[in-house]
Amino acid sequence: MVTNISYFDIGIVISYFVIVLLIGFYIARQTKTGEDLFLGGRSFGWGIIGLSLFASNISSSTIIGLSGAAYTTGIATSVYEWMSGLPLIIAALIFVPLYLRSRITTIPEFLEMRFDRRSQLFFSGITIFSTIMIETAGALYAGTLVLQAFFPFLEMAPTALGLAVVAAIYTASGGLKAVVYTDAIQAVILILGCSILTYILMAEIEFDFARVIASAPPEHFSVVRPMDDESLPWLGLLVGVPFMGFWYWSTNQYIVQRVLGGKDIRHARWGVIFAGFLKIIPLFVMVIPGAIALTLYPGMEKGDMVFPFLVTEVLPVGLVGLVLAGLISAIMSSVDSALNSSSTLIMIDFIKPNMPNITNEQVVMYGRITTFVLMIIAAMWAPKIREFEGLWDYLQQMFSIIVPPIVVIFLVGVFFKRGNGEGAFWTLMIGTVIGVLLFILGEKGLWPLHFTVNVGFMILVCTIIFVVVSLMTPAPDADKIKLLTYRKGLVMDGMEGYPWYQDYRLYMVILTGLIFYILVRLW
After folding, report:
1. Which of 50, 136, 132, 64 has the alpha carbon at shortest distance from 332?
2. What is the H or E stretch that residue 93 is in?
3. What is the pLDDT of residues 116-152, one digit of tens each?
């Protein structure tokens, strides 16, 4: 692709890198303990939490993919974005108070308290592997592809390593607080840049979106697709997407860590609901531009080139640099969150239990070393992802294996108080093995289910395993798990004494109504 980027735009991007590094170094001076490094001293307010959740979730591949899909196949895959509010509501209602009352640093620690250490170590190991080999490496690979679309002379391996090094420097220096504060800046840049692009494109069609709808195929703006649809069949929308969303927003250390760093339950809940509202924005500033491009610039062969084309050909000098900085910020926010969460898991779940006398200074030092080691591993693996058919296939196939057993032991385990350590451990073991087997059969054409439908099927299988094994083995100590399972009054825990307009449930209802309104309009 021929680039159309001025030196002024490049200067804006360089300035962004400098600001991010300075923030990391500044916060590093305040990072003295493990809690500072891994949870930001539990000091985050709701605004910072919401912005960081949004930025960590939106990757460059998301931006490119949403615009490209809206241009080529339609808007069906956008449901992963704007329907995120529903699992976020579940997180706010139930899991935020359970996690914060437990004073955990990692999500696997919750499993140790609810079940046993076997489940903690297994889940932690799976999470570390998936975060580094899927999330981090995938973000570096996608980010490099994005940069190559603007700067064709860049090579894959050095570029991926360069992005990883920058993210690792400020992540290792300032820990989660550096990650969260840079994420907040990145979220604002991302939303602002994409909003400007959308406005300019809407102006070109004289704000007549009906013109765009009329020029597209009838099914282009429908999210409910037939069962043989390759992107998202209707059954997968019902039985797969919600559970994948729950896993991502309620059990994934990569995401939940900034919630654990909330100053209290109230701010954590508000931050989670705020993120749910922010997740609706991509539908309007990332999906809509791709749809408008179908009307204004028909005939593009590759959907992945739509967003880079719009940025370089539509935006004026200066704004190109702003949007490009937003794209790079999306890369960085994904990488920094993954590196910090994986380092936290290794230190808290594996190293610290085996070194009971470790000092705060040693925890910080080992945590920073771990971050750089993980950075090197992810940067080395990223170029190998090109051997898969596509990044989206790579990500979703991996997630469809690990999600079902994790969802069951958390979601069912919170309500099914008879569930025990044996049930949780064997659900993780057997569920993961079956998931790998079905993945292999699917690759050979012997298992026909779409990966989203397969997630729903495996949820059922894992639920049966969890319940049956738990009932066949001794019940857990009721007093021990009392505060780790659902109880009356949980939804208002930490919210007592606040006026009605500060009740998160009010905004939860508004968010739910907005999501279902969008669903009906795009049916």
Report:
1. 136
2. none
3. 999 999 999 989 988 888 778 878 887 887 788 778 8
Give which of 408, 433, 410 is closest to 484, Cα–Cα. 410
Q: What DSSP assignment string belongs to 299-342?
A: T-S-GGGHHHHHHHHHSPTTHHHHHHHHHHHHHHHHHHHHHHHH
Instruction: List, for residues 205-219, the tens digit of each pLDDT value.
Output: 999 988 888 877 778
Give residue-wise pLDDT tens across range 321-330.
Answer: 888 887 887 7
- Is the Cβ–Cβ distance between 411 and 467 less than 8 Å? no
Spatial separation of the C-alpha atoms in residues 262 and 475, rounded to whole Å: 33
How many other CB atoms are there within 10 angstroms of residue 39's CB atom? Answer: 25
Q: Please give the single-letter amino acid code of residue 271.
A: G
- For residue 262, the cross-strand partners are 44
- CA–CA separation, 506 and 503 (whole Å): 6
In Å, what is the CA distance from 386 to each residue of 134, 390, 440? 13, 7, 20
Helix (H, G, I), strand (E, B) or coil at 233: strand
Residue 446 CA to residue 215 CA, distance in Å, equals 39
Q: Where are the alpha helices (DSSP H) in 73-155?
A: 79-82, 85-90, 96-102, 107-114, 117-130, 137-150
475 DSSP assignment: P
Looking at residue 2, what is its pLDDT?
43
Q: How far apart are CA 481 and CA 116, in angstroms?
A: 11
Instruction: For residue 3, name the pLDDT band (cuts at 50, 70, 90).
Output: low
How many CB atoms are located within 10 Å of the residue 163 CB? 23
Q: Give the DSSP letter string of 37-57.
A: HHHGGG-B-HHHHHHHHHHHH
Q: Cβ–Cβ contacts within 10 Å for residue 36, how many?
A: 23
Mean pLDDT is lowest, of 293-297, 337-341, 440-444, for 440-444
Structure tokens at 118: 């076997």
Domains defined along the chain, listed by start: 7-387 (1.20.1730.10), 392-487 (no CATH)
pLDDT of residue 430: 97
Q: Do residues 46 and 352 touch, judged by C-beta distance below 8 A? A: no
d(CA 58, CA 82): 12
DSSP one-letter code for 387:
G
Residue 225, beta-bridge partner list = 233
